[in-house]
Structure formats: C-alpha cells, structure tokens
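Q: What structure does this chain adopt?
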Amino acid sequence: MIYLWLPIGLILPTTCGWLLLRLLEGTSPVLQKWERAIAGFVLGGILTTYVIFLTEITGIGSFSFLSMLLTQLILIGILGGLYWKNRSNLTTSYQLPATNSSPWKPWQKIAAGILGVWILVKLISGFILLIGPAYFDDTISNWNLRGKAFYVHEELLLELEPGKGTGIGSYPQAVPLLKTWLAHLNGSWHEGLVNSIHMLWYLAALSLVYCALRRLLSIQWALLGTYLLASVPLYLLHGSAAYGDCFLSVVIFLMLSWAYFALRSKEGERQSFIRLSAIAAGLLVFTKSEALLLHLPPLAIIVLGMLIVGGFTAAQKKSTILWYCTAIAAVLVPWILFKWMNDLGFGNAKEVSGMTLEWHEGVLRAIGLNTFLEGNWSLLPVLFVGLVIAKWKMAFTSSLIVFTGFFFMVWLGQLPIYMFTPLHVEALNQTGYARGIIHLIPIVVFVVIVLLREILEKRN
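A:
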C-alpha cells in the first residue's frame, strides 16, 4: 500500500508539467500524447519543486505538507486557467509521419518479444535493488539525507551535519524535495517509497529516447535504440540507484532533442520546439550543479550555431534568443543570488575557485580503461566512435551535430578538470568521470542508432 503514494504523489507535478508543455506548443503541437505526459512528469517535478523552493526562501511558504500542496494546486490553477482560456487553439494533436512505419517481419516480432522480456527482468531486478535498504554513499549522505531533513524540519537546511559545512547544501533541491513530498503523503519517511521515483526516471529515459527515434525512424529502429539504452550496464545501475545522474541525463536529452528537431522543422513546429527546449534548459539548472558549469555553455554554443547556419529568419532568431535567455535566467538568476547570499560553492559540492592546477599522472589511462576496456558501457563507446568516424560528414555537418557537437564539447571540457585539478581522484577512482558519461548516454544512443540505420539502409 505504501507504494500507491508514488503514482498519487506524481499526479500534481505531472499535471503541471503537462499543462506547461501543452501551452508552450501552442497551435503547433509537436509531442505525441504519451511523450508529452512522460516529459511532463520529468519537467513538472522540477517546476513544482523550484516554485516550492522559491516560496520557502522568500518566506511565503515552507516545506510542510500543506504549503507544498497549496503551492502545487495554485500552480495548476494558473496553468490550467491559461489552458482553459486558450483551449480553442489547443485542440489539435501531433501525428507521426506515416512514412516512419514499416511492416513487421516474423523474426523481428520474435526478437522484440525476447528482448522485451529480458528488459522487463532487468527492470524488476533493478526495482528490487532500488527499494531495498539504501547503501550507496551519495544516497545516504546527500539525496536522501537532504530530503529527510526537509521532511522532518519542514524548512530549507543548508548545513545538515554540524561542523561539515554546506557542501551538499549547494546542490539544487529538486530531487530531495520530491522525496520530501512523497514522505509527506505517506506520513513518514520510507526509503523504498522515496527511492522508487528513480526507476521512473530511468523508464522515462527509455521512453523518451524511443519517442525521439520514432519521430525519425520506424518502430523497429526506435525499439532497437530503446534496447541499446537498456543494455548499458552502468546506466541501468544508476537507474537502480537513488542518485541524480540518470535524472539529469533525461533533462539534457529533452533539451537537446527538442533543439535538434527545431533545426529540422519549419515555421510553426520550429518555434514550438524552441520554446520546449528553452524551458528544459532553464529547468536543467535546478537538477544538479554540473548543469550550470558543464552543460549550459555548450548548449549556448549549439544554439548560436543553429541561429547562424540553421536558416532561421530574423524574427525566429530574435524569438529563440529571447526564449532561451528568459527561461534560463528565470531559474539561474534566483539560484545564483541564493548561492551568493549563503556563501555556497559553485562546484559539485566542492568550490571551483581556489583549485590548484597541476598535471596528474594516470588520469588519461584511467579514462581510457573506463571508457573502452571495462564493462561499464558494453560496446556502446566502440560503436559510437566507429560510426562517427565512418559517417563523419553526417555526424558533423548535418543537424545531428546538435548531439555530436554537444557530446564532444562536454566530454573534452571535462578532461582538463580531471587532468589538472584535485578532482583527478574522481577519474582515478572511476567515480566522477563515469557519472559525467552517464549524463550523455541517451545522446550517444540516439546518434548510434541514426548513423547505424544510415549505413545499413544504404548498404541494402
């Protein structure tokens, strides 16, 4: 019975997310019904917790059950009112192009059934692991610790353990606040309940990669991409662990995939995708600290490149810049001001400024081993590198550069951090570096499937 609070607790944030996305699409809907619901679940959780966070730090509300409930209801009232006001223009639905479907062959049906059963077995096993006693370090000392502290004290606490400073207090609050909300509904803190939401984020990643591929390719290719993502060992492990990295990867994928489809679309749909991508970029700030330092700068370069060579009109360029700047500033400015006012660091629980720079031996070897010679990623890195080399022109001169360009900017940008700063231990111990790759895995899978299909269909 306890786990019934999970779907019940997600109704309000998912409704907020669904309404927001549908309003942003306007008269040119671009999302499938289930795609909008799943993306609404992911982004709605960030939106509602961010607004709850704002009410707490401004003294308007708190982290009590009543305050969190009222905040979400008011938010639904505002978004629902806007939807009702514009309902006559929001009735059309997006339909997949008929050319993307192809008949099933008998062997494809058998293979899909076998792989589907195998994925289900892994999901059940992962869920059992997830709802068991929490033993992962960051689960106990970060994500759940903050969520439980917010639940018990019903206010924002930055220093959770006396004498240990505000290191983890510098993290955004979206994940722990969602755990706090579920605990309030249950009436007590329950590790299994608050951790179970992480498996839903993993399922959201699988579903949204499928939806993005389905927009371009046949059902068979989209399912292959879904299976490929589900077959990455470390990604499944993070889907089965109460960490924030899989969650972050989903938001990054939404932000980038919507920018990618904006580049491929025409007038009405292009602007819908731009608005969706901009909102995802803004909400990305409130997921993990890495987003601010590692992911927003490459996004800015990608968007600038889109405006230069993407065939945007002057009006579209102006609208794109306005939407991205406004959406990001709406979250970034209050969050930065809050961190400055409370003397919080701008690193991953470690202060960025003041780090000494020096070369550290063994880092590149550890990165090479982690990427290519261990079982973390299965054969995905080899496939990715080989396909990018084989189809380099498509990878770097077509709209696919939104994904490949972002990946290489983020990946190359992380290398100096591990090679020259005290964070080199994160690479040598194969912890921080691997998590940085987790954030990019859905992107890699998307590129691999698109390039693989291009090669195989041309050969046939």
